[in-house]
């Protein structure tokens, strides 16, 4: 297979061999050398795809077939190359249009690419190969395969289009990459895979694909060329000369190095590693058996020592735990008291002493009633019995403890039962909640103030809460303004089976749920406008706006309002209706004006044409009758005939300007005619692309409207664009007809020019009258693309 591929490469490169044998240098004329002297450094753009070009991060340099090819070209040309890497072909073409790239290797010639590149002769032919498992198969013909033989290939790609259009018996399996196409063969999802030789040479070095082999050639070679800028034809000539001077041995070395599949060695064989694993496993089992015998003997000697160490460690851990417990209790921020059944304190930690203003020793043996005056002996015994009987594991209540200075301290008190050795105690936990109660009072005051403000707002104020993602969303608050807005009290709207959704008009509920669900899923702001129904059945327009806020963790709340915008909406609807009427009136006036233009064009062409024809005939008769009698009369008659011919042309121009007759031949013919007239008048090349097949029927009004938009667009290009080329494209996309006009001029900002250009406003209004859409894509310095889309009237074809 390698000899066949290399033989085909030599046949492809045979026109260059004589020039390569003449010497190592490139034969350039004086103009080419002068051009290279003016451009000593060229920018080369490459698509980073192995094995053609890839960037090694460790070495910080580019490598690959195309890189070494240009290094060989650079040795024979007095020029330096600077490299620009791009992730894909689209990014490379955008860089070319932006003027960042002068030439690029590894391109395939396409009709679309001819508008941007000047391609060299092909320097490399890369076949697409049919790959399958090693089953003894020598060669496979695609015609021999049946519908049960699945072929995996990368889609979208040119080879997939080639197989689909030429071999109808094949069953193709789409894969996003060549690697996954080969994996599909290994996983028995497909019998064969189609991969180009370059990718196969890279992937076949991996042990995963060692069982695959080449079983045939698809017959679609990929010819790689070097593309240069279209505005530099000298560079394309120089590159062709350099390629012809490149020795064939250099290309053979590049192919052998980058495009020849390397067979995996013995270390890459799965059988080698399987046998090695079995051997190592056997040795490991023997070693483990010997180790188990030795460890059993050693464990008998260490067992007693471990028992002794464990007992010692447990004793030390218990002592350490006791010390840590005592330290934690003494330095806890919560006050802790050990109280006996007679309500006398047996232990007090530092925290409770600091809270109450006593020392720890001063509280010991004092009655608990000293710090809690309301805790009489009867109440204490009742609490003792309840906690000791285990009816309640812990008892908590709020209290006001008495400090040493006579002031009261708000506190939370918790009781729990403790049995220590032979004694029983109630452990009293005291927490100072002075700041918490102060904050709670302030919060209640703030909520009362907020409810007062919300009740006076002209609308409905609400809050939605979602504690966790996926949890139900409930109303936490609805203001009293709900009764004034919709007639329902807040309690009824906050019910789980009611909510604001029950107020929404049935025709608007789908949009309401869509916007609400989207805002809840993304935890983002919510906005909706629509109709709601009041309690008495009246219809109102409402505007809901809510802002999302994230509280602790994943708790999300939406604070918002429901405004009554019925009056504004009514004005908006009336304004929209008025605009629609004005647009209909403008469309009618435009239609009447086009009809009047057509009538005037016919009258000018017919009436004046007949009069001028009679006048020309009379002049000719006069010349025949009296021209021989007087030489001066003949000159005057000749002058009159020239004036009549000019009047004929003037009449035709006026009639064509009013309504071009070419419109009767169809919109496609009219567009080509107008483009040729523009090209002749402006000397700017105009590329026209219209469908070759017959177009669906289009009304006369839409055909005239599209033609007028094209005239206005070409006029703007001539006046303002300073363009070098213009492209006009007419296409059918579904049930719409699309007209696009593109130029490579200086461009503009559509937002800034929208209010200043009456031409753009006129085109937009004309398209809106046709029921279509107009889009302008432009940036300063990057040209303009104008796209018009109108609906087709019917699907019948016209002649």
TrEMBL record:
Pfam family of the protein (one): PAS_3
Any coiled-coil ranges, and where? 568-595
Keywords attached to this Swiss-Prot or TrEMBL record, sorted alphabetically, are: Coiled coil, Kinase, Signal, Transferase, Two-component regulatory system
User: Could you tell me the superkingdom of the organism this chain comes from?
Assistant: Bacteria
Entries under InterPro entries matching the protein = HATPase_C_sf (IPR036890), HATPase_dom (IPR003594), His_kinase_dom (IPR005467), PAC (IPR001610), PAS (IPR000014), PAS-assoc_C (IPR000700), PAS-like_dom_sf (IPR035965), PAS_fold_3 (IPR013655)
Q: Where is the PAS domain?
A: 329-374, 446-523
SUPFAM superfamilies attached to this UniProt entry: ATPase domain of HSP90 chaperone/DNA topoisomerase II/histidine kinase (SSF55874), Periplasmic binding protein-like II (SSF53850), PYP-like sensor domain (PAS domain) (SSF55785)
The chain positions of domain PAC read 395-445, 526-577
Q: Which GO MF terms are attached to this record? A: phosphorelay sensor kinase activity; protein dimerization activity
Q: Which SMART domains match?
A: HATPase_c, PAC, PAS, PBPb
Task: List each copy of the Histidine kinase domain by range.
Answer: 599-794
A Gene Ontology cellular-component term: membrane
UniProt signal peptide: 1-19
The record ties this protein, via NCBIfam families, to: sensory_box (TIGR00229)
Name assigned to this protein? Transporter substrate-binding domain-containing protein
Q: Which organism is it from?
A: Aquipseudomonas campi
